[in-house]
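Table S7 (text form). Paired inputs.
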Amino acid sequence: SAASDVYKRQVVSLSIVLIVMFAKVVGSVLPIAAEKLGVDPAVMANPLISTITDAVSLLIYFEIAKLMISF
């Protein structure tokens, strides 16, 4: 139905915006933190950023969907 399609579009759109914002924050903070801890940022950054972002992306998507269902 049309209402269901609008709901799906809203969930996906809001999820994408929040996931991109989260990824940018993690991608900029993690190398700075690694450098302050004395670890080479290049070694630590890529795999850890990807893992954290992927895991949290799923959580963001499901939480937004859960919140939208309750309305």
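Next pair, protein 2 of 2.
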Amino acid sequence: EPISEDINDPTSRLIGQRATAVQAFQGGVGRVVLDGKEWAAELVDGETLKAGTAVEVVGVDGARLSVRAAG
């Protein structure tokens, strides 16, 4: 069954937003800050990322964001 996008779902609005890595990503996981809130995050296109790197949110799974390096 397809999942309809709920425009009232606050997490769906995060997709496409830019965030900043607050710590270096190791093994594809780390933490990012978006709109002043810290989130657990998972890289979709790599294993490591330096702290301070800009990322783009490409997905949300509960309280974890899927991100890729912004470019």
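The mean pLDDT is 89.
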